[in-house]
Amino acid sequence: MKNGRLAVIGFIGAQTLLWGAVPAFKLGPLVVAPGEIKAGKLIVPERGGTGTFIPVTVAHGVKPGPVLALVAGTHGFEYPPILALQRLKDTIDPKALSGTLIIVHIANLPSFSKRTIYFNPSDGKNLNRVFPGDPNGSLSQRIAFVLTQEVVRRADVLIDMHCGDGNEALVPYSYWMISGDAALDERTRALALAFGLSPIIIDTTRGRDPLDSKYLGNTALLMGKPAITTEAGYLGRSDEDDIQRNLRGAWSVLRHLGMVGGKPDRIENPVWIDRYEVVMSGRDGLFFPRLASGSRVEAGQTVGIIKDFWGAIVEEVRAPFAGIILYILGTPPCNAGEPLYEVGRIKRP
Question: What is the pLDDT of residues 167-196, one digit of tens each?
């Protein structure tokens, strides 16, 4: 027993030495020593004369811990998460950090620069529908490929931070994506509670094909990594309340993961959404909402009307089921095949 005990002590000591020697962290061209924070670019190579880069920051702790990736700007007109992560960069102390924080400041720089909703102006694609990407594809597909290889694969946990795009009036909420792996689902549920937004959508709709994961968060989930998608902000605005909501969520997740000290600001009694539907426009025209985001709606109730370009009513848009309006168009233009609003059914106890 004595020799066995010494062997165990020796093993623990060896592991302590191994864990205590935190190596440098590499991300793209960045090499970050323990206790350092560095900013730089992930290069998206040119193809057909078009390329871009992804601005990132890495804060590398002096103690071992998880690698957390916080990603903003997957849609370039969604400003509060982008601004929140810039503030986080300015306040995080890598010398007091356990693990590594990857901040993707603006995932979709072409969309951000041109102030476009949904789509990359270079190729007309929605970045959050083309994951895991293609190194030989269009610009959006190449951005997705770089994010998958450099960020998703390097991370242990990922938060894809969104808000209402420039045309969307939105209430804060988040998606808890169900993987079918009970242990992984419990970890992602805990992440959603730690970020602190309500309602929380119980999302069973994401695909299971890793070669066609479509969404950034789903790409991480299909690799067995806890990931959630958050939504806080609306109509392309930069309201301080929404910036702070995103910043509080990021800090709360850092505390939840034990990367910084303190207790997470976990939401205790969220509203759970067990079914949701994004209602698409059937035609081009002008949309006039009859309800605001956050409103309760009954099945068949009128949510809004569509007028043609001359002002004649051409469609009355009704709710497919009873629930809450999570977001709704807040600007008049509507296009066939694009969202008008999202409704979620509140889960009964």
Answer: 999 999 999 999 999 999 999 999 999 999
What is the spatial distance between Cα 156 and Cα 183, in angstroms, rounded to a whole number? 15
**161 and 36 belong to one structural domain:** yes
How far apart CA 261 and CA 97 sit, in angstroms, is 9
Contact present, 287 and 281 (Cβ < 8 Å) = yes
DSSP state of 209: -
Spatial distance between the Cα atoms of 40 and 55, rounded to a whole number of angstroms: 6
Nearest of 128, 122, 117, 60 to residue 94 by alpha carbon: 60
Contacts of 27 (CB under 8 A, 6+ apart): 40, 42, 56, 58, 102, 150, 151, 154
Domain containing residue 286: CATH number: 2.40.50.100
Judge whether 315 and 306 are in contact, CB under 8 Å.
Answer: yes
Confidence of residue 4 (pLDDT cuts 50, 70, 90): very low
Could you read off the pLDDT of 125-148 as tens digits, one per residue? 999 999 999 999 999 999 999 999
The pTM for the full model equals: 0.92
Tell me the average pLDDT across 212-223: 98
Count of domains for the chain: 2
Residues 334 and 211 in one domain: no
Q: How many C-alpha atoms does 276 have within 13 Å on its Cβ side?
A: 25
> Measured between alpha carbons, how far is 121 from 115 in angstroms, rounded to an integer?
9
Buried b (16+ CB within 10 A) or exposed e, 143-160: bbbbbbebbbebbbbbbb
CB 172 within 8 A of CB 231: yes
**Torsions phi, psi of 268, nearest 5?**
-90, -35
Cβ proximity of 98 and 132 under 8 Å: no
My answer on whether 240 and 308 are in the same domain is: no
199 prior amide bond cis, ω within 30: yes
Average pLDDT, the chain: 94
Provide the sign of the torsion angle of the four alpha carbons 53, 45, 68, 196, taken in this order: positive
